[in-house]
Structure formats: structure tokens, C-alpha cells
From TrEMBL:
Function: Acts as a magnesium transporter.
Organism listed in the record: Thiorhodococcus fuscus
Region ranges (Disordered): 1-20
Domain CBS: start-end pairs: 306-364
Gene name for this UniProt entry: mgtE
SMART domains for this protein: MgtE_N
Subunit structure: Homodimer.
Membrane-related topology note: Multi-pass membrane protein
Listed name of the protein: Magnesium transporter MgtE
Coiled coil residues, start to end: none
Length: 551
């Protein structure tokens, strides 16, 4: 019998229904997810109508937050109501001993992460969506960063469309770049529209040039011009940090007029603790604090209330200097000007907190040569490549220390005790030097250390090195004498430790200062150089003295 056209058209649907049923029955949620992603919402709705109630619920778990409403719109009211009821019942029932998610979310981050991982294992992604609905975007970002890259992509689809931009804002640069690269352009542009201009600039800078250009082209002309102006400044400068949502006023208006203008705006930009006064040529004149506006008489002129001595931030000033000023002066916001004194925008405390956080992460990771590895679950190849460089540098420095030891091969063959005690000298110098190095790097970062007080700090650290050197030289010498019964070896190691601790103190001050002067970040390479110096000096002093005295 010849089939009708309608029957021919139904065959692919029936085939896909069978495929979907098989995937769901075998708990192959990832395969089911990939299959559903290729379909039109109307097609998915057609498939759901042919499944059992439990299969419908399992299939719905695999739909992302943007596709689900479209699919539900194609279902009948009765089926949509029943499906919502079944889904709600499914999400409140524990499976395989897992904890139910009935809307009561434990505040502990570890518990939230476990709920996400359990939901991923069970293919119950709607449980993640329900959890995310109750969390702040910053906490969602933290959970995403705690997941491996493959699972992160699945969970990312569970973020509600209107909250995508807010979550992107709180993600670390590397994670944000990877997730944005996996989004389709339409969704990415939609998310970009929800970002503040300064956050949008950061996102565009993280994306490939072509993608960033497409986002810019999708904005209206005024917004595009603002973004291009901000993108013209380097990322690590005040111009790269600033936003352009400031409130500008003229000095010749009255407070009553200003209040009417503010009421017409209906809302003020976040962190608006001061208004910026400009002249007719848009040049910065001073600030007007909001509390003074609220308490002044309506007939008072802005020129009588403004502060003209508040220093603006030059657009080309480095971001770490901006952060330092905010910290020292307890600022919430500050105006940014160009070389001609024109007001460009403002920097707010939330931008500065991001800078401080990045500086802290940079210093911590840099000590181990992991400066760029902000993503804990970055791909293996990329992470291996980054770490290989520093392992190679460390190997070179290790060979330098080994070469020094090799110079005294004859001495070590005659006096075996020296080989046993030798690591103690290098270790003591390395620890003492690291303490000084950390203190100096912190001083450089906070601006507490400059050319005027460097000599004082050097003398202080040398004094500490001398006192600690004498103390621990005597302790180690006594232990060496008791161990090997040789007073000469005890004296040699005592002198070597004293010399190495003095060298470590001096190196801990001088090395970061020299690196900073020639443009090398001491947080990134200081510890490697310091360890090399203390190892070489320690081995040379100990083995050299032993060669002179014992042989």
C-alpha cells in the first residue's frame, strides 16, 4: 500500500522518538541533550507528546533555560500544566540517596557544589536551574569556576537568560572568555546588552577580534561610540577601567534645578556618591557630593557647594596606582580626565575591587609561575605549556647550583658528612630570603617602599639576618658536632649559615627592586632568582670553607 505524504513526514519524528527513548532509558543524558539541541522547539514539543510522563520529565531536564519556554509554548495547556507538576515532583524527590532540592538551599558553598555535581550525574539539570534561581550571580560564577570545562558548558545553559550578563561579569577572565566563545552570537549579543559599559569592554577585549566587532556593530551608534572610546585605552589604565555613566552638572545652576533634573532621571547610576561639575567645553571643574545636594537649600548655587580641590584621575594612569589611591583615600568613585582636562568618565569602587582581586591572584599564582592560569580546570595542554616554561627555568637554575657542587667533588669524596649537611645551608637561606622578598614585594605593591626608605629597610633586614644567623648557626653547629663528633665541621656549617642568611637578607631586598626598575614583575620571577642566589652562595660558602680548612 502506498504511503501518504503525511505518513512519510512522520517517519523521522518516530525515529527520533525511538532514539530519544533509548537514550533516556540508558541514562545517556549528554547524547539526549545533543540531539535536542539540533531540533526546533516545535519539533521537541512534538516528541514530548509521544513520551511517557517520566520520559517527558527526563527530556525536559536536558533543555537549556532559553529553549524550555519556547518548547512549552507549543504544548497544550493541559499537557503543560501536567508537565510542570511532574517536573516539580521530580525535583523534590531524592534519587539514589541524593539530597532533595525542595527549594531549601544550604548556604555552604561546598553543599551547593555537591548539589550541582549530583544533578549532573543524574542528568537532572533542572535542579541546577532551580538552585541558580535562588543564588546571587557572583555565587553562580563561583560554582561555574569550580567545575571541569565539559561540565561547565552543560551547567552554563541552566543560567536564566536575563541573568547571563550578570554572571559573566563575575567570572574570571579566562573562564568568561571560554564560555562566551561557546555561546551563539545572538545569545552573546543579548547578554552583552545587559552588561555595564566597563564590563562589556572587558568582555570584548577577552573575545576574538571578529566577535568583538560583531558585538560592537549590534549596538546603537551612541553606545558604540562610548565603547570605542573606552576601548581606545589600555586595559590596565584608568581609561580602561572607567565607566561613562557619570552625572554631570554646571556650576551656575541652583540646587533646586539640579534636584528637579535628578528626579527626571528617575534613578542614579550605582555608586553615585558625587556629581561632577564641568564647564561649557566639558572640562572638569570639581565635584559635588550628593549628601550636600540633599541637605542644601534649593536657592543655593552649585558653585557654592562644589569642591574644586578634588584631584581627578588621568586616563593614562596605571590601574594599580588608581587602586592604591582608592584604598588610601577611602573613595567610592573618582572622575577620569584626558590630557586636556575634559571629563571622560568615572571609576567606581567595584572596578577597583576587581583590580585588587586580580593583583592578589597575580601575586599568589606568580610566585609559582602560574600567572595566567586563573582557571583551575583549564585544558591540560594549555596548562602544561605554561608550567613547562617555569620548569625549564627552574632546571637551569638547578644546574647552576649543581655546577657549584661539582666544583668541590673532591672535597665531598673525602668528607661524606658535608653531603649530608649541605642541604641545610641552602634551605635556611632560601626560607630567610623568601620572607624578606615577600615583605619587599608587598611594600612595592602598596607604595610603602621607595627610594627614600630602601636603605633603611636594607639595614633592618641585614640586622635581622645577622641575629637569626648567629642564633641558628649555633644551633646547627651544636647538632652537627653531636651527630658527627667533629668540631671543625660544626664551625664550618655555622659560618656558612651566617653568611648565607646575610646574603639572603640582602638579596631579598635588592632583587625585587632591580626587577621592578627594569620592568620585570618581581612577584613572577623574584623567588626563582632568589632561590638560585641563596643555593649558590650557600653551597659555595659551605664547601669552599670545607676545602680550605679540611683539605
Amino acid at each position: 500500500m502506498k504511503q501518504t505524504p503525511q505518513q512519510n513526514q512522520s517517519e523521522p519524528v518516530a525515529t527520533e522518538v525511538d532514539q530519544l527513548r533509548e537514550m533516556l532509558s540508558r541514562d545517556q543524558s549528554k547524547r539526549a541533550r545533543r540531539l535536542l539541541k539540533t531540533m526546533h522547539p516545535a519539533k521537541i514539543a512534538s516528541l514530548l507528546e509521544r513520551l511517557t510522563p517520566q520520559q517527558r520529565v527526563d527530556a525536559l531536564h536536558q533543555l537549556d533555560a532559553r529553549t524550555e519556554p519556547k518548547v512549552l509554548s507549543y504544548l497544550s495547556t493541559a499537557l503543560r500544566t501536567q508537565l510542570a507538576y511532574d517536573l516539580d515532583a521530580d525535583m523534590t524527590q531524592p534519587k539514589n540517596g541524593a539530597s532533595p532540592t525542595d527549594g531549601r538551599v544550604d548556604e555552604e558553598p561546598e553543599t551547593q557544589l555537591r548539589l550541582v555535581l549530583d544533578a549532573l550525574d543524574q542528568g537532572k539539570l533542572k535542579r541546577i536551574a532551580r538552585l541558580f534561581h535562588t543564588l546571587h550571580p557572583a555565587r553562580i560564577a563561583g560554582l561555574l569556576e569550580s567545575l571541569p570545562a565539559t561540565e561547565r558548558a552543560r551547567v552554563w545553559d541552566m543560567v536564566e537568560g536575563e541573568r547571563t550578563a550578570k554572571v559573566l561579569r563575575h567570572l574570571h577572565e579566562e573562564v568568561r572568555r571560554r564560555l562566551a566563545a561557546e555561546m551563539d552570537l545572538e545569545h552573546l549579543i543579548e547578554a552583552a546588552r545587559g552588561l555595564e559599559p566597563d564590563d562589556l569592554v572587558d568582555l570584548i577585549q577577552d573575545l576574538p577580534t571578529a566577535t568583538g566587532r560583531q558585538i560592537l556593530d549590534a549596538m546603537d551608534q551612541r553606545e558604540r561610540e562610548r565603547l570605542q572610546s573606552m576601548l581606545s585605552y589600555p586595559e590596565n589604565t584608568a581609561g580602561g577601567l572607567m565607566n561613562m555613566d557619570q552625572v554631570e552638572v554646571r556650576s551656575n545652576i541652583k540646587v533646586g534645578t539640579l534636584l528637579r533634573y535628578l528626579r527626571l532621571r528617575e534613578e542614579l547610576p550605582p555608586n553615585t556618591d558625587k556629581l561632577f561639575v564641568i564647564d561649557r567645553k566639558h572640562r572638569y571643574q570639581g565635584i559635588l557630593r550628593t549628601e550636600r545636594v540633599l541637605t542644601a537649600r534649593p536657592e543655593t548655587s552649585v558653585s557654592d557647594l562644589m569642591e574644586t580641590d578634588f584631584e581627578p584621575v588621568p586616563a593614562d594612569q596605571k590601574s594599580d596606582a588608581v587602586a592604591q589611591r582608592f584604598e588610601q583615600e577611602d573613595l567610592n568613585s573618582a572622575p577620569v580626565i584626558d590630557a586636556e582636562g575634559r571629563l571622560l568618565g568615572r571609576i567606581t569602587i567595584d572596578d577597583v575591587v576587581d583590580v585588587i582581586r586580580e593583583q592578589s591572584a597575580h601575586a599568589l599564582l606568580g610566585m609559582a609561575g602560574l600567572d595566567e592560569e586563573t582557571d583551575m580546570f583549564a585544558p591540560v595542554l594549555a596548562s602544561s605549556r605554561r608550567r613547562a616554561v617555569w620548569l625549564g627555568i627552574n632546571l637551569i637554575t638547578a644546574f647552576l647550583a649543581a655546577w657549584v657542587i661539582g666544583l668541590f667533588e673532591g672535597t665531598l669524596q673525602h668528607v661524606v658528612a658535608l653531603a649530608v649537611l649541605m642541604p641545610i645551608v641552602a634551605s635556611m637561606g632560601g626560607i630567610a630570603g623568601s620572607q624578606t622578598l615577600t615583605l619587599v614585594i608587598r611594600g612595592l605593591a602598596t607604595g610603602q617602599l621607595g627610594s627614600g626608605n630602601t636603605r633603611i629597610l636594607l639595614l633592618k633586614e641585614m640586622g635581622i639576618g645577622l641575629l637569626n644567623g648567629l642564633l641558628w648557626a649555633l644551633v646547627v653547629a651544636a647538632l652537627a658536632i653531636v651527630w658527627f663528633g667533629n668540631w671543625t665541621i660544626g664551625g664550618i656549617i655555622a659560618v656558612a649559615i651566617l653568611l648565607n642568611l646575610l646574603c639572603a637578607a640582602a638579596s631579598g631586598v635588592v632583587i625585587p627592586l632591580l626587577m621592578s626598575r627594569i620592568g620585570i614583575d618581581p612577584a613572577l620571577a623574584g623567588s626563582v632568582v632568589l632561590t638560585t642566589v641563596t643555593d649558590i652562595v650557600g653551597f659555595f660558602a659551605f664547601l669552599g670553607l670545607a676545602t680550605l680548612i679540611l683539605l
